[in-house]
Amino acid sequence: MEFRQSNKLNGVCYEIRGPVIEQANALEEAGHSVLRLNTGNPALFGFEAPEEIVQDMIRMLPQAHGYTDSRGVLSARRAVAQRYQALGVEGVTVDDVWLGNGVSELITMAVQALVEDGDEVLVPAPDFPLWTAVVTLSGGKAVHYVCDESAEWNPDLADMESRITDRTKAIVLINPNNPTGAVYPKEIVEGVLDLARRHGLMILADEIYDQILYDDEVHHSAAALGPDVVVLTFSGLSKTYRVAGFRSGWLVVSGPRQHARDYLEGLQMLASMRLCANAPAQYAIQAALGGRQSIRELTAPGGRLREQRDRAWEKLNEIPGVSCVKPKGALYAFPRIDPAVHPIVDDERFVLDLLLREKIQVVQGTGFNWARPDHFRILTLPYADDLESAIGRIGRFLAGYRQA
Ligand code: PLP
Q1: Dihedral over Cα of 41, 155, 251, 94: its sign
Q2: Ligand 1 within 6 A of 212 CB?
Q3: Which protein family is it in (predicted)?
Q4: Closest residue by Cα to residue 21 from 393, 361, 384, 364
């Protein structure tokens, strides 16, 4: 008897945790030390969990052993609702908030509740690939709109509009963006909202990096700018509060919810089916949102994240044949390898060769649904000196690299 994976997984890809990982694990088992620059996990790079979050979780633990309401505990949902009210999102109440085991779970639920077989969802290219994977898994079609590298990686609104059909249900907006680090100007967010308004689409706004901004960048929340559009905003504790392992996130519904009653019932059913999010991690939310926002110090001039972003960007641009748009937010850089200088035809092979030779693990651009094999993503989470040394090694590797 052979057990085979379901056909529902046909076409579902998730390269960030893909085959290269197995090779990296094998190298580690053989005694090599591998510099893992593949997952945005701050804990691996010396970022500690903020003390007040940990203390609050410990304090609440004796009372956190039961299931909670499937939307989440009231105190945490209230803290989230207040945060979005303060950001100018009209009329958000605790009933508009769902808590989940990370944003990942909420993305899965939100898309599954929405997408019928053959429905289309507009997803950015490049994207955080969970979006494409979940749309595909739900029987839908992820239709990629282009983010324009020559325009600071902003979405190309004309391209986005040209891809809308009568099967399109929603537009995914990842702002600040993983992998590019783009932070969208107000006009772009307004332009996307305008398309949603004119074509009757939902906006799925992945704003998990909304507090990770450099150089006085301002984040424009889609929900705040579009009170007349149904927007689902996703965020959580993994990045801003550096506690990815706690698995704690939220989803906030805003806009004319009366047009989404049936959908929200479906979402609630999926929330009930997984009973509830991990309860201790739900209690961390109120402590995080109400506590000291240490992310501001990390991203300010002289702050650790800011210095690392600067160093990574400078050093990447020093590599002959490599250019990188300056990330304005988030925890990544997405450099381009000029095909005229380094003709790479298979970027997964490139990443594997880099891993085998230099013991550095990055993620190939095509893993983010980027169509050409000419980009890779690197984290800006390691200490600046470690980044400089890793990027120096990538540069030396590239100089002698040829793909047959
Ligand atoms: N959305 C984006 C854009 C991300 O980059 C990530 C994680 O890297 C997630 C969502 C998932 O976050 P979580 O840890 O809350 O599941």
Answers
A1: positive
A2: no
A3: Belongs to the class-I pyridoxal-phosphate-dependent aminotransferase family.
A4: 361
- ipTM over 0.95? The verdict is yes
Give which of 178, 257, 254 is closest to 221, Cα–Cα: 254
Give residue 110's pLDDT: 98
What is the pLDDT averaged over residues 119-133?
97
Query: Mind listing the pLDDT tens digit for each residue in 135-181?
Result: 999 999 999 999 999 999 999 999 999 999 999 999 999 999 999 99
Mutate to test the pocket of ligand 1, among 175, 178, 250 (most ligand atoms within 8 A of CB): 178
Strand (E) positions, 154-229?
Answer: 154-155, 168-174, 202-206
DSSP letters along 89-112, please?
A: -TT--GGGEEEESHHHHHHHHHHH
- 278, 366: one domain: no
Cα(74) to centroid(ligand 1), Å: 23
Residue ending a domain, among 242, 258, 290, is 290
Q: Is residue 120 domain-resident?
A: yes
- Residue 2 forms part of a structural domain: no
Contact between 345 and 317 (Cβ < 8 Å)? no
The residue range of the domain holding 231 is 51-290
Distance, in Å, from the CA atom of 297 to the CA atom of 140, rounded to the nearest integer, reads 41
Q: What token pair was written down for 290?
A: 């109400």
Residues 151 and 223 in one domain: yes
Residues 100 and 44 in one domain: no
Ligand 1 site-directed mutation target among 131, 177, 208, most atoms within 8 Å of CB: 208
Burial 165-185 (b: 16+ CB within 10 A, else e): eeebbbbbbbbbbbbbbbbbe
Q: Model pTM?
A: 0.96
What is the rounded distance in angstroms from the CA atom of residue 222 to the CA atom of residue 36?
33
Q: How many domains does the chain have?
A: 2
402: amino acid identity, one letter: R
